[in-house]
Amino acid sequence: MRHLEKWLEPTVIVIMLGAIIILVFADVIARFAFSTSIAVANELARFCFVYMIYFGVSYAIRERRHMRVTVILDMLPDGLRRWVFALAELVFLVYSIVVCWLGVVITQQALERGKILSSTEWPLSVLYAAIILSGALSVLRLGHSLWRVVVHNDTRLGPQTDI
């Protein structure tokens, strides 16, 4: 389980990036060498890009490398810094819960309407599921980060070393 927790996002990101490179390269070759386009390649590359980006969000949260402005946080004394940092993580956690919930709503609506992707003819909900998966992973990562801040007073902004 620890290996899955450690390698899930990086593995998905690398596989999706590799697929994007192969798909776009194949489409470029098809366009210039054979004067045709691979419609499925464009759609699959977009699909891979969406999943890569959304899994990158949860990975950045896990590594504490997501964008944040820390000027005020850096000027605070340690005691106050801990609680302001915890508040920031809590706000981000609530935001991630809302994003995850809205991802469920959007995915359900796409399923109910029977929307499909044009080339692959996959349900559009497969694409929207990236929001749910990333949101759920982000909630778990932020919950763990918040626990580390409150229980262990860990307000380091760099990557986690205990995982």
Assembly type? single chain
Please, what is the average pLDDT?
89
How many helices? The count is 5
Helix content: over 70%
Largest sheet: none
The number of distinct β-strands equals 0
Overall outline: elongated
Count of the domains = 1
What's the N-to-C terminus distance?
12 Å
Provide the low-confidence segments as ranges: none
How large a portion of the residues is in β-strands, by DSSP E? under 5%
In N-to-C order, the SSE pattern is: HHHHH
Radius of gyration: 20 Å
Computed structural class: mainly alpha
Structure description:
By secondary structure, this protein is an all-alpha fold. The protein has helices at 2-34, 39-62, 71-75, 78-113, 124-152. It has one domain. α2 runs parallel beside α5 (124-152). The mean pLDDT is 89.
List keywords for this structure.
single chain, 163 residues, 0% strand, mainly alpha
Short structural summary:
The protein has 163 residues and is mostly helical.
Write the layout of secondary structure elements.
Layout lengths: L1 H33 L4 H24 L8 H5 L2 H36 L10 H29 L11
